[in-house]
Amino acid sequence: MKVRITSLNPTEIATELGLQPFQGRQVFRWLHQKHVFDFEAMTDLSKELRKELAERAMTSQLTLAHLSTSARSFGTRKALFRLEDGETVEAVLIRDRDRATICLSTQVGCAVKCAFCATGMSGYTRNLNPGEIVEQALYLLKEEGIEDGHPNIVYMGMGEPFRNYDATVRSVRLLMARQGLGIGARRITVSTVGEVPGIRQFAEEGWQIRLSISLHAANNALRSKLVPINRKYPLETLMSAVRDYVNATRRHVTFEWALLNDVNDSPRDAAELAELVSDLQATVNLIPYNPIPEAGFAPPPFAKCEAFRDALLKRSVNTTLRKERGQDINAACGQLRRQLLSA
Ligand code: SF4
């Protein structure tokens, strides 16, 4: 069986394939810095070695099945990747002036089944391996011709990253490797819907990666309806783990809040949210909901979104109100894949 080298670091590539350490680093640089997946094009390797690698190793596990560009949000591109077994996952690239942000998926589908989410509605199929996660970023950087090598990475695509903990953490390490992209920990955000054991384990990794919590409700009754994992890890348990993460890493934390019309957008919701996060160094990101027909939710009118933001700001909560990006290309997680599955 061929060795899948996009899941490996330079030392592991050398060990697995019986190469010299410097050759492991060369191969890793081709993949991660130059985004070259064809061994034949790795021209600083000898012809014999290239031939041997092609016989014994494989680089790419995913192929680009579809790429959409948003007409309204210039610079937002959404890719649907086909995996080796025919499954599909999505990744998004957002370019804002000279900054690129790449949003990665960690699972095919998701078992958490949040009430408003297209991915949750498609059900869970399987975890991605580290190479499949990393390749999403490498492909988008290549496709977009992004050379600076220092994009922001957010684990906010399909799946709950902490339900695929080991592959997520390994992919983070590969993206941070200085022989490759060398992305700084502070440029990486991992978003969880509240998988508490994962948050606690992540706090022990000894790095300064930003944690983002998809909160969406600040009382247990509503949150358990919107985000079923709340029944297992209610807000008290979740917030205690978040506080410990902040204390361990000294990192500011972010809370994501999808604004759903007449569901979680009232002045009372804002007051509860402000109360919940008041003792944390935190930012709340408000995102007007990107509707999917089956879910039965809608975004509030924009004036209501602004009023919600202002209610938080008045209570001294650092708050941003995100403009919808890429609604016309189904940029909310899992929508493109779901459309394709039901076609
Ligand atoms: S919002 Fe995230 S955790 Fe919830 S179902 Fe969708 S992918 Fe899973």
In short:
The chain is α/β, with parallel strands linked by helices.
Instruction: Write down the CATH class of the largest domain.
Output: Alpha Beta
Strand order of the largest sheet: 3-4-5-6-9-10-11-12-13-14
Structural class assignment: alpha/beta
Total helical elements: 12
How much β-strand is present in the residues? Answer: 15-25%
Structural domain count: 2
Full CATH superfamily name of the largest domain: Aldolase class I
Keywords:
343 residues, alpha/beta, DNA polymerase, domain 1, TIM Barrel, 2 domains, 10-stranded mixed beta sheet, two-stranded parallel sheet, 14 strands, 36% helix, binds iron/sulfur cluster
Task: Summarize the helices and strands and which ones pair or pack.
Blueprint: E1 3-4, H1 10-17, H2 21-32, H3 47-56, E2 57-58, E3 62-69, E4 76-83, E5 88-96, E6 99-103, E7 107-109, H4 118-122, E8 124-127, H5 130-143, E9 152-155, H6 165-176, E10 188-192, H7 196-203, E11 210-214, H8 220-226, H9 235-249, E12 253-259, H10 267-277, E13 282-288, H11 302-314, E14 318-321, H12 335-342
Parallel strand pairs: 1-2, 6-9, 9-10, 10-11, 11-12, 12-13, 13-14
Antiparallel strand pairs: 3-4, 4-5, 5-6, 7-8
Bound molecules: iron/sulfur cluster.
The site of iron/sulfur cluster has 12 residues, from helix 4.
